[in-house]
């Protein structure tokens, strides 16, 4: 178990008392605060900014510890891709773990194809960044596929180290590298990468506007940006927030997986528009990921799953307990597995 478990998950709850979409609007408008200003005094504003800052630090610590603790177990059972698989919609007959692993590779290929990335030489990305890289499964796959130089960032020191070791073992040490760094403050100069890849990391980002602006900043002119992430449903016309029971369900998931407020795919699209990015496209792939969580639960309930879970610690156990909530969220049409892609103008 990770040494420090001092984060009270209730820390992240108050954000959900406000609509995630309202938070989004606040961040788009350039405000860092999550709530409407209660007092005009600058003292109160400073205190609130400090509180936000503290929450962000605690959130990052929780995320780092969750992945430090659980990545070895995940790799043991599932291999080096820590993301959903992509299945034909309505497919419910996938049984073998190897087929689920193939579905995870298919997820990468489907995302590239949705974004319109070309396999033609001359058009292949030469420099790629993997934002929220896990143990580098996507980084290595993309580096091999395109012969590209790839950089990965993660909050988890364990993941960065493991990603580097796996890459070295596969002869990719000169082509692929990893470091511990924050996606909201990326350690790269502007306009570095032809492909900016974020596979299931956006849901962890407490400031979606900053997240997206960093993705756009490091993208070279003409680069493709791919965001595959958990979203809540788009709000209907006239709706200003999710329903209380929906917020309550997301709140429980947030506590277990170290997630801040959620937003919708439409929110992401608006953010990308606000940055003048082009060819913006999004899709709801929820029907294509339906077999994934039931499969993860099945593997968690095997002897190997249970013993690895107990060995890895409390944060991982809490995460495992939230898996049925993800299934419930998808079934209720509350959680959406979204892909959002765009290009940076030349
Ligand atoms: C579910 S894992 C996905 C890993 C990887 N993309 C994959 O598909 O195998 C989420 C990843 O996001 C990373 N992450 C979350 N918040 C981050 C942040 N603020 N900066 C950098 N990485 C972050 C975590 O460290 C973890 O590596």
Automatic annotation (TrEMBL):
Gene Ontology biological-process annotations: methylation; vitamin E biosynthetic process
Q: Does the keyword Methyltransferase apply?
A: yes
Q: Name one Pfam family in it.
A: Methyltransf_11
Residue numbers spanned by region SAM motif II = 191-199
Matching InterPro entries, A to Z?
A: Methyltransf_11, PiNMT-like, SAM-dependent_MTases_sf
The record's section on PROSITE patterns has: SAM_GTMT
For the region SAM motif III, what residue ranges are annotated? 218-227
In the record, what terms sit under GO molecular function?
S-adenosylmethionine-dependent methyltransferase activity; tocopherol C-methyltransferase activity
Q: Which residues form the Methyltransferase type domain?
A: 129-227
Source taxon at top rank = Eukaryota
Region called SAM motif I, residue ranges: 128-137
Keywords in alphabetical order = Methyltransferase, S-adenosyl-L-methionine, Transferase
What protein family does this chain belong to?
A: Belongs to the class I-like SAM-binding methyltransferase superfamily. gTMT family.
Q: What is this protein called?
A: Methyltransferase type 11 domain-containing protein
Q: Which organism is it from?
A: Kalanchoe fedtschenkoi (Lavender scallops)
């Amino acid at each position: 178990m990770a040494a420090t478990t001092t984060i009270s998950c209730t820390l992240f709850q108050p954000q959900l008392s406000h609509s995630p979409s309202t938070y989004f609007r606040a961040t788009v408008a350039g405000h860092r605060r999550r709530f409407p200003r209660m007092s005009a005094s600058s003292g109160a504003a400073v205190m609130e900014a400090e509180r936000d800052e503290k929450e962000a630090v605690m959130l990052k610590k929780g995320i780092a510890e969750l992945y430090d603790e659980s990545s070895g177990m995940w790799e043991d059972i599932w291999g080096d891709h820590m993301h959903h698989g992509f299945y034909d919609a309505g497919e419910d007959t996938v049984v073998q773990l190897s087929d689920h692993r193939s579905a995870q590779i298919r997820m990468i290929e489907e995302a590239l194809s949705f974004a319109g990335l070309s396999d033609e030489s001359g058009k292949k990305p030469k420099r790629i960044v993997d934002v929220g890289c896990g143990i580098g499964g996507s980084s290595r796959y993309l580096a091999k596929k395109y012969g590209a130089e790839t950089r990965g960032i993660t909050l988890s020191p364990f993941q960065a180290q493991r990603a580097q070791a796996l890459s070295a073992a596969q002869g990719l040490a000169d082509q692929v590298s990893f470091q511990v760094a924050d996606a909201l403050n990326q350690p790269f100069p502007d306009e570095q990468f032809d492909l900016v890849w974020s596979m299931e990391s956006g849901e962890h980002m407490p400031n979606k506007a900053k997240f997206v602006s960093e993705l756009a900043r490091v993208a070279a002119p003409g680069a493709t940006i791919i965001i595959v992430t958990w979203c809540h449903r788009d709000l209907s016309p006239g709706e200003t927030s999710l329903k209380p029971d929906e917020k309550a369900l997301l709140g429980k998931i947030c506590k277990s997986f170290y997630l801040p407020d959620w937003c919708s795919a439409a929110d992401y699209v608006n953010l990308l528009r606000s940055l003048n990015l082009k060819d913006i496209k999004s899709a709801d792939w929820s029907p294509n990921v339906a077999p994934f969580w039931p499969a993860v639960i099945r593997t968690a309930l095997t002897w190997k799953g249970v013993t690895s879970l107990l060995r890895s610690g409390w944060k991982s156990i809490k995460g495992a307990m939230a898996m049925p909530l993800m299934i419930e969220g998808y079934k209720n049409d509350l959680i959406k597995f979204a892909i959002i892609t765009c290009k940076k103008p030349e």
